């Protein structure tokens, strides 16, 4: 199988949809020789922020000299983005070769009556195998959906479980309260393995604390941590942190957004916990690693004069965080908003939060079969803004939005990772 054939094979599996459960992926990994047990793993769950947290942690570990893998989802532009070792994406050739291996085992499973693994299950199995073959020291593995029944949750003894911000999302799968969702995310917590938790709602803390107590997992958490922001611009933030475990002064955070300041607090806590687990990370390494972190599609600046910002916020909590950041960085500036959403998201709440910020709104449709029709979102947007336009085609919508953005204005693009991925290709010309 070549690269194009591999992509076509993945597309053919989309009809299977999402099926939570571990039986199929466990069976496949058993056939592969349990590659996930051949290196250390940090397992990262959460509703928002887990990608940024994973990126910062990976950057620290690379700076410390560890051969470090990163598995994330979804991708923005190419499947290759999901498989990264020491900052380098898997090649097209290796992607095709490993997909061919996975397909053979998947076909065997279907023949044996076990059932065909889903797209995500096969992609996840491929990650574990690829990282094992490349003999990585440690892998940062991001949960796909939930935690308890997510395909990544075949990890038996992570060196650390990290749980980022938790809010309502994927309620049809995970439950309709933050407590229920926290329980699902907390499914990644393993017996006698430490856990680090983002400072958040007390209801979330209580659920995670109970799971940690049941599984003898040491919980690193401080509700009273103090964050002192020294400087803050659209090019980054310098902040100092103090909690019951450590003090850390003048951390340079290149990822912008108020939420990234808080995500960094979680990363520092994780670095502290890793040190206590025997993965040595000195303060200079932690600083340098964070300062080099890159995470595309989250408050990412893709142009200046006008300022073009893309952000993959795709649920009410993510949008609220984006609004706070916009108020911090773009106060007094005219904002042109380009937005598209999926039909299974809480898009009315999202629109209510962000559209009042904008002088002009352009509605488009994400590159997904689950996209909400542009006209549907346009009707909602018109409740909060007088200048609303809709163009179904993403490239045409971006061109129109850009034309209507002055040199001193801000063009803010958000609503869905599927939209942001397609937009990034349009804006950057496919070059990264």
Characterization of the model:
It is a single chain. It is built from 15 helices and 17 strands. The chain has an 8-stranded mixed β-sheet with strand order 4-3-2-5-1-6-7-8, with helices on both faces. The radius of gyration is 21 Å and the shape is globular. It folds into 2 domains: 3-291, Mur-like, catalytic domain (UDP-N-acetylmuramoyl-L-alanine:D-glutamate ligase, 3-Layer(aba) Sandwich); 300-428, Alpha-Beta Complex (Protein-Tyrosine Phosphatase, Chain A). Helix 2 runs parallel beside helix 5 (119-133). By secondary structure, the chain is of the alpha/beta class. The model has no long low-confidence stretch (mean pLDDT 93). The longest helix has 20 residues, at 92-111.
Form type? globular
Poorly predicted residue ranges:
none
User: Roughly what percent helix?
Assistant: 40-55%
The strand line-up of the biggest sheet is 4-3-2-5-1-6-7-8
Structural class: alpha/beta
CATH superfamily grouping of the largest domain: Mur-like, catalytic domain
Please state the CA-atom Rg, rounded to the nearest Å: 21 Å
Number of helices in the DSSP assignment = 15
Largest sheet, described in full? Answer: 8 strands, mixed
Named CATH architecture of the largest domain: 3-Layer(aba) Sandwich
User: Mind telling me the CATH class of the largest domain?
Assistant: Alpha Beta
Mean pLDDT: 93
Q: Quote the distance from N terminus to C terminus.
A: 26 Å
CATH topology of the largest domain: the name is UDP-N-acetylmuramoyl-L-alanine:D-glutamate ligase
Fraction in beta strands: 15-25%
Number of strands: 17
Domain count = 2
